[in-house]
Design brief:
Blueprint (H helix, E strand, L loop, with lengths): L1 H19 L5 E2 L9 H12 L3 H11 L4 E6 L2 E6 L2 H10 L4 E2 L2 H11 L8 H11 L5 H4 L3 H12 L4 E6 H18 L9 H17 L6 H6 L9 H24 L10 H8 L3 H15 L1 H13 L4 H14 L7 H5 L2 H13 L5 E6 L3 E7 L5 E5 L4 E5 H4 L3 H4 L40 H18 L2 E4 L7 E3 L3 E3 L4 E5 L1
Parallel strand pairs: 1-2, 3-9
Antiparallel strand pairs: 2-3, 4-6, 5-13, 6-9, 7-8, 10-13, 11-12
Helix pairs in contact: 2-3, 8-9, 8-21, 9-15, 10-12, 12-14, 15-18, 15-21
This protein binds protoporphyrin IX containing FE.
Protoporphyrin IX containing FE binds next to helix 6, helix 14, helix 15 and helix 21.
Family: Belongs to the cytochrome P450 family.
Cofactor: heme
Pfam families: p450
């Protein structure tokens, strides 16, 4: 077998190495280089202390490299925070990288097959169908944002009492994205009775979205990972049932909709009557559009009230450019300081801080090999590259010596030693390449509109979080302690 392997696969790999001058990257030191058991235990430990991102970042820092390799259960994994490597995977060599079987299986179990879990032609088809939902005229329709945000503001105490914003943001973004994409909102902020069902849906989603932990591992530690996860099945059923109900109601009222907008669900119903496909596409897009913006807003309001000068400057910008009325799309586009604060929030707290891709054939990534870490690295077929945007967006050589601190002025011309900042592939909150986030403009305008309305409604915003920011990591990442704030009108 060895002789055969050397004559075929080995020969191809030697040729690639020779052609591109590949060298191996630094290897992460492990006392179990075959099974990588220490890596698995290290991950469990770091995850349970809510320090997984720090752990992955420290592996790169301790190795003094931006790309390292390790072996886990016979698989080669490359960890990287190198922008050029990430660009190669996501854009330049897009077609030879897959989302990877584990991710597809984990997500398909609760959202089925759709834009997030498909590849090749099926993915292209889903993307084409969704794309018109996000064109400018759709995204600039502020009516939906405004209506639901007003309802959320009504529910916030105005006397300075502490309010937990995270659950409100989840209800709000779900209400907005269901109206935007399905033509019918959960209206989850309207009445308490409806909330119960919606909250159940959100809880089930949150549970399924966590690939690192389940009810068994919570109870039995890492041994629990070996047991079947019955709760996952139950949650997947809750999600399926509620989604089915939405689809059914919409099918019955199809054609009666009052809006001229492109409603994704309407278009889906026009091209297929396969219920499973419809449900899966809806769940896929919901999983993208719901929690992500809520996490961004939670992280934003976690940081903002801790910086009185930044808050004051932001208020001033809103007062001067928008006044007291609801903002228009054009006004929001001109709020440069708001954009800088949102950018800075996403830089320090990316909603998708780590991600992976699997090589479909023997290939290379351009950086990380050899003693100087500048040679290309051979990535064998089946190996994984895990890219860490959390670590990359905190790199001092790219963002300056104060890269760990919250300083929006780095995004503004002539206001910071690193400006004008053009980080290119070193700043990737919405990913890049052909699978770049479809909802980027929607999410940014939605979040900006909500922030402007909240700051217009309240004169005082005070942080009530006692702990520093700690990660709550599922497939998205936000603040573990949520975001507690006191507002005064
Ligand atoms: C702050 C909010 C958001 C952030 C940070 C974000 C980030 C991302 C990232 C990093 C990806 C790439 C995932 C991967 O390659 O594995 C992605 C994909 C995607 N996002 Fe977003 N997203 C946000 C909001 C939204 C919203 C509101 C929607 C739609 C309503 C949306 C729709 C999508 C879709 C459809 C994809 C899949 C694209 C594809 O695979 O072709 N996103 N997003």
């Amino acid at each position: 077998y060895r002789v055969y392997w050397e004559a075929t696969t080995g020969a191809t790999r030697r040729k690639i190495k020779q052609k591109y001058g590949c060298q191996p990257p630094k290897r992460w030191w492990s006392w179990d280089p075959i099974l990588g058991f220490d890596w698995v235990i290290g991950n469990f430990k770091a995850y349970s202390q809510h320090k997984l991102l720090e752990y992955w970042t420290s592996i790169l820092r301790q190795s003094n490299a931006h790309t390292v390799s390790l072996y886990v259960v016979g698989k080669t994994i490359f960890l990287t925070n190198d922008p050029e490597n990430i660009k190669t995977i996501l854009a330049t060599d897009f077609s030879i990288w897959s989302l990877g079987k584990p991710r597809m299986e984990q997500m398909t179990a609760y959202v089925g097959r759709g834009i997030f879990t498909n590849e090749g032609t099926a993915w292209k088809h889903s993307r084409e169908l969704l794309r018109p939902s996000f064109n400018r005229s759709q995204v600039s329709d502020f009516h939906i944002f405004e209506k639901h945000t007003a309802r959320m503001i009504e529910r916030i105490p105005k006397d300075g009492a502490t309010v937990e914003l995270e659950p409100l943001f989840h209800l709000l973004t779900l209400a907005i994205s269901t109206e935007f994409l399905f033509g019918r909102s959960t209206s989850a902020l309207d009445d308490a009775r409806k909330n119960e069902e919606v909250e159940q849906f959100i809880d089930a989603f949150e549970y399924c979205q966590n690939p690192f932990e389940n009810a068994n591992t919570r109870k039995w530690g890492w041994r629990g990972a070996l047991l079947p996860d019955l709760r996952q099945k139950k949650c997947a059923k809750i999600i399926e049932d509620i989604d089915e109900e939405v689809t059914l109601k919409r099918t019955q009222t199809s054609g009666n909709h009052e809006t001229e907008r492109y409603v994704f669900l309407e278009e889906l119903l026009a091209v297929t009557d396969d219920r499973t496909q419809i449900r899966s596409e809806l769940l896929n897009i919901l999983s993208a559009g719901r929690g992500t913006t809520a996490c961004l807003l939670t992280n934003f309001f976690f940081e903002l009230p801790r910086h009185s000068q930044i808050l004051a400057r932001l208020r001033m910008e809103i007062k001067d450019s928008v006044g007291v009325n609801p903002p228009t799309y054009e006004q929001v586009k001109e709020l440069k300081y708001l954009k800088a604060v949102v950018n800075e929030t996403q830089r320090l707290y990316p909603v998708g801080p780590i991600n992976t891709r699997e090589a479909l054939q023997d290939t290379i990534i351009p950086h990380g090999g050899g003693p100087s870490c500048t040679n290309p690295v051979l990535v064998p077929k089946g190996a994984y590259v895990a890219y860490n945007t959390y670590a990359m967006q905190r790199r001092k050589d790219i963002f300056g010596p104060d890269a760990e601190s919250f300083n929006p002025s780095r995004w503004l011309e002539n206001e910071h030693p690193s400006s004008p900042l053009r980080p290119g592939w070193a700043y990737l909150p919405f990913s890049g390449g052909p699978r770049v986030c479809l909802g980027q403009q929607f999410a940014l305008t939605e979040a900006s509109c909500i922030i402007v309305r909240l700051l217009q409604a309240f004169q005082e915003v005070e942080s009530r979080d006692e702990e520093p920011w700690r990660e709550k990591l599922t497939i998205v990442c936000s603040s573990l302690g949520g975001c507690k704030v006191g507002f005064r009108q």
